[in-house]
Amino acid sequence: MNKLNIKEYKTKSGEVRYILRGAYIGTDVLTGKQIKTDIRGRTKTGVKNELERLKNEFKKNGNTKGKESLETFGEVAESFFELYKLQQKVGSIRQMRSNLDTYAIPAFGNKRISKITTAHIQKQVIEWAKNAAEPLGGKQKRDVGSGKDYKLQLNVINRIFQHALSLGIIDRNPCHSVIIPKVKIDKPNKEVKFYTKTELSELFSHIESLDNTKWSTQYFNALIRLLVASGLRIGEAMALEWFDVDLDNQTVSVSKTTVQRTVIQDTPKTNKSNRVISIDSKAVSTLKRWYFFQKKHFMSLGNPHQSLVFPTWQGNVMDYHGLNYRLKKIEDAAKLTSLSFHGFRHSHASLCLNAGMTYKVIQERLGHSTLQMTMDLYSHLEPEKKNKELELFTKYANF
Q1: Is 146 in contact with 196 (CB distance < 8 Å)?
Q2: What is the pLDDT of residues 15-41, one digit of tens each?
Q3: For 38, which of 169, 222, 305, 362 is 20 to 30 Å away at the CA?
């Protein structure tokens, strides 16, 4: 190693200091330029130590000055999120942003990531688990920051540390030694609201009694009829285009949904949500009527090639939140308990069950990711099916 040319000098106050001019830190891998700087210190040893520190920092930063140095957990989390956004769907991105802002960053954001230990993370996970285990006390929803998914939050933290590890910011991931607590989670008693066959008959009778020359009458008749016949999520219905609807073969193909209210995402909620659903002849005839009514309307606006099945009156993607008020008015007029649009999905499941369909078929129609999800949601619906099954047993076991 060449001897360092550290020179002594005096400050204006007469104090002795030392300086190493043009100290070589390294060569920037992005620009190819040598990085040099002047280093001052109270002692020669201090100058040497500072030189080593600068060299190590430069190396840790990827041998470049142009790369932003990431020191805090929050900075690394944002870097991770930028990469995450390039690889995920809009819904997943929004959920990850919520996880970061609600849990990860408030817990560790200002801490230097290299100083966060397993003990720090373990303490936080225990706190999250305690919050998750708190009784709901009749509430249907937990307070913000007290969610039940403490294991998910640890997974998010772990992914951020893995990101830091891949960037060479840390040498080990402290999450690997964290023990996941096992606590009992109090689940809310969520009532699955749906219309019975009789109530649906009353609803459609009311809709068909309305002025069928109006856009809103035709729109809601077609939309609700399709939701009941198919079990589509409302976002899937808003993203439907006419080429997704095969009226001759009586099927609807689902391959997309709306997110952020009016953005069509070219993939559905889950992989299982990609599906082709058969619909009944009544739904087909209602959709045919709606197709010609809609086409006539858009031809009058100079837009005969409107592709969306359920657009706005002007032809844009419909924000279905704006339809809730109109839906409630229809339900009130029909003297029925108000349901959300998702209630028609539950109504479809109830009809399928009582018609004798298996849970596997219902799972495929609804696009649930697992059979267990379908069974957990709908196994208790409407006693009609249970009564039929008892009748079958009684007739068979008549000994």
Answers
A1: no
A2: 999 999 999 999 887 777 888 999 999
A3: 169
